[in-house]
Design a protein that fits this description.
Blueprint: H1 8-15, H2 18-26, E1 40-46, E2 49-57, E3 62-64, E4 67-68, H3 69-72, H4 76-89, E5 95-102, H5 106-124, H6 129-134
Parallel strand pairs: 3-5
Antiparallel strand pairs: 1-2, 2-5, 3-4
Helix pairs in contact: 1-2, 4-5
């Protein structure tokens, strides 16, 4: 392209209508996002847990906070949660994962790492986006614990009522 188009208005003028301009914008292919070391980075979140995730081509080794996934996430269910994005995308044992997680409990941390892996995978290879999005792995689970209100025993629970 000799000249870059600056706005949607210019694209609309060139294409000749709103409908064609919108489809041209939607059909623009996504570019892989990788750093100088060939890694893709993404942030995953669930509940109060936040995970920073880097993926790179490798043998399928997963490291969480400097420890192997088997020692950090000891329950098999949590390890299965971490494998789900690779299974859905069909790239098992093709990427090494390095993640750091803070906040929340183990279940929330596993969900945060899963979210981060999914986002990093689709940044590394945009063709995997459809499968990951259909499985719902790119959507952040935004449910968090409700705060306690004043005049209440918990977030919504009132103090016990006594008639006499």
């Amino acid at each position: 392209m000799a000249e870059e188009i600056k706005s949607l208005d210019e694209l609309t003028a060139i294409a000749g209508g709103d409908d064609m301009a919108e489809t041209a914008v939607e059909l623009a292919p996504r570019e892989p996002e990788r750093d100088s070391l060939g890694r893709s980075y993404a942030t995953g979140k669930r509940k109060d847990a936040v995970a920073r995730v880097w993926i790179k081509p490798g043998s399928g080794k997963v490291t969480v906070n400097g420890r192997d996934q088997g020692t950090y996430f000891a329950r098999p269910v949590l390890q299965m949660i971490l494998r789900q994005p690779f299974t859905v995308a069909g790239v098992e044992d093709q990427f090494d994962v390095m993640a750091t997680v803070k906040g929340g409990g183990l279940s929330g941390q596993a969900g945060a790492v899963k979210h981060g892996i999914s986002k990093a995978l689709q940044l590394y290879d945009p063709s995997l986006r459809g499968a990951l999005k259909a499985a719902g792995f790119l959507t952040r689970d935004s449910r968090v614990v409700e705060r306690k209100k004043y005049g209440k025993r918990k977030a919504r629970r009132s103090f016990q009522f006594s008639k006499r």
